[in-house]
Amino acid sequence: xxxxxxxxxxxxxxxxxxxxxxxxxxxxxxxxxxxxxxxxxxxxxxxxxxxxxxxxxxxxxxxxxxxxxxxxxxxxxxxxxxxxxxxxxxxxxxxxxxxxxxxxxxxxxxxxxxxxxxxxxxxx
Length: 124
What we know:
By secondary structure, the chain is mostly helical. 81% of the residues lie in helices and 6% in strands. The protein has 3 helices and 2 strands.
């Protein structure tokens, strides 16, 4: 299998090169340029050139669109993160008076637990 795949790839590339350079079939291709019909190898060459240029233009347009969308979504993500942080601060500020009766006993318990964990200092 390891020797079969390179042989198939080489065979396919040879067939592609044969079809690309076979001017017998290329003579059948025609292209219209300003109302004049250009055929033969020149028409084939111009058609290939313009089709390749269109593909390169489409690739550049897609790359720029991807870059734009990446920057757009990154900016929206930063705005969403900032909005969620502000919402959290607002929620904490609104809930602070309600939570204060629950937080005072919790703070007392934490102080007691902290004193119990502290090692007794030995006098030397």
